[in-house]
Write a structure and sequence with these properties.
It is built from seven helices and no strands. By secondary structure, the protein is mainly alpha-helical.
């Protein structure tokens, strides 16, 4: 993973370095967080992992809401006024909605790393929205599975097309007369 943007250094289907020589030819699937490469064949506890991710992300969202509730109580006790209270509630609500949308769209297409870096603060404030997006997506598939499957299938098709194009040594081919 790139430290700066949080995006993988190698795209799906990339050869991948030293492990590549141990495997047969072809692209390798990109591992997903919490799932590794179990999303390819839905094996090795894929369903249990999906259930765990759903429960974990929902529990984290509930815990985050409790923390926000304590923050709200602190603001109320401080008697900062209704204007400040409304501003803070609106900020968390708007940032959570934007973070939900951004995270949800990230499951279907790769984001621009520079745009993601510029949204980092907003996404940090709206972390509840990101957790909820992760929860809802994990009810149907591993979050990001659709995007990775499309990229992996495309890489496999490209590899098979390239591999089947030429077989054998063309200089030893018999010529027709």
């Amino acid at each position: 993973m790139s430290d700066e943007t949080g995006t993988p250094d190698t795209p799906a289907g990339s050869p991948g370095g030293a492990d590549r020589s141990a495997q047969s030819g072809g692209p390798r699937p990109e591992p997903l967080r919490f799932f590794g490469t179990t999303w390819v064949k839905h094996d090795s506890g894929y369903a249990a992992r999906r259930a765990g991710v759903a429960v974990g992300s929902l529990a984290a969202a509930v815990g985050a809401c409790l923390v926000l509730r304590f923050a709200y109580e602190g603001i109320r006790i401080a008697e900062t006024g209704s204007f400040v209270t409304v501003l803070i509630i609106a900020m968390f609500a708007i940032c959570s909605a934007l973070a939900f949308r951004n995270t949800w769209e990230g499951f279907d297409k790769r984001h621009d790393p520079q745009r993601q870096a510029s949204l980092r603060g907003l996404l940090a404030i709206g972390f509840v929205g990101s957790l909820l997006a992760y929860f809802f997506r994990s009810l149907t598939e591993a979050p990001g599975e659709k995007l990775h499957r499309e990229e992996y299938d495309e890489a496999r098709k490209e590899y098979e097309r390239r591999a089947s194009r030429r077989t054998g040594n063309p200089s030893k081919k018999k010529r027709r007369r």
